[in-house]
Structure formats: structure tokens, C-alpha cells
Amino acid sequence: MDRRYTSISDVVQELIHDESFRDRLEKEINDKQIAKVLFAIRAREGKTEAEMAEMLGCTQVTIAKLENSRIDAIKVSDLVSYARACNLNFTIGFHDERNTVESVSAYACGIQDDGEYPK
């Protein structure tokens, strides 16, 4: 426990073999996936947290919490409001689980088909 690391790479190399750590990290990433999508949408819109809060009629703190929330703390109504404020449609869908490489590949194929980046 007293070991000192010289880089992030050293930490990753040690922890990557710890199955318990990998499971906890994967759960943490999955639990905050929707929140990170909300952040990405706001960033794409070029809005600050305060500007988004004004659009939604809430406080900047509420937006910060929403964009850092676990999946079980986000209400569908929050997602609908967020989407409307950004002139987006909100839908819920089910699909087979993909890994990151498959997701990026599908995204790239979509760009090639349309000639544009999906919004």
C-alpha cells in the first residue's frame, strides 16, 4: 500500500490485472454513461451549465448534478426536458450490447453513408 507510482501507466498496469477493480470500474463507467451523454450534448450546443439551467428553468447546480449522476438518479422527465431544450427528440431503445470498437465502427459507417457526422 505504501508503493509510490511514477506514472498513471504504472497504476494501470498494476490494477488492470485486478478483476475486482476492473468490475468496479466498468460498473462506474456504465452507471454514468447517460450523464456523460448529457454533458456531450450540452458541449456540442456550446452552452455553459448556467445557460442550460436557464433553458430548463432550474439552477446551474442542478445541471452539474444531472451531468454527474448515476443512472438510477436520472428521471426520464429530466432526459425529455434536456432533449427539448436542445431541440432534440428523446427516444428509448433496446439493442444488443456492443463493445467500444463495434460502436466506433458503426459510427464511422454512419458517417460514410451520410457524409456527415451524426448529431
Would you kindly provide a written description of the structure presented here, covering whatever features stand out?
This protein has 119 residues and is mainly alpha-helical. The chain folds into 2 domains: 1-31, no CATH class; 33-114, lambda repressor-like DNA-binding domains (434 Repressor (Amino-terminal Domain), Orthogonal Bundle), CATH 1.10.260.40. The protein has helices at 8-15, 19-31, 33-45, 49-56, 60-66, 76-85, 100-114. Helix 4 crosses helix 5. The longest helix is centred in the C-terminal third of the chain and has 15 residues, at 100-114.
Q: Can you tell me the number of structural domains? A: 2
Strand tally is 0
Q: What is the level 1 CATH name of the largest domain?
A: Mainly Alpha
Oligomer: single chain
Distance between the termini: 45 Å
Major sheet size, sense and barrel closure: none
Proper CATH architecture of the largest domain: Orthogonal Bundle
Shape: globular
Helix fraction by DSSP (H/I, runs of at least 4):
55-70%
The chain-level mean pLDDT equals: 82
In the CATH hierarchy, the third-tier topology of the largest domain is known as 434 Repressor (Amino-terminal Domain)
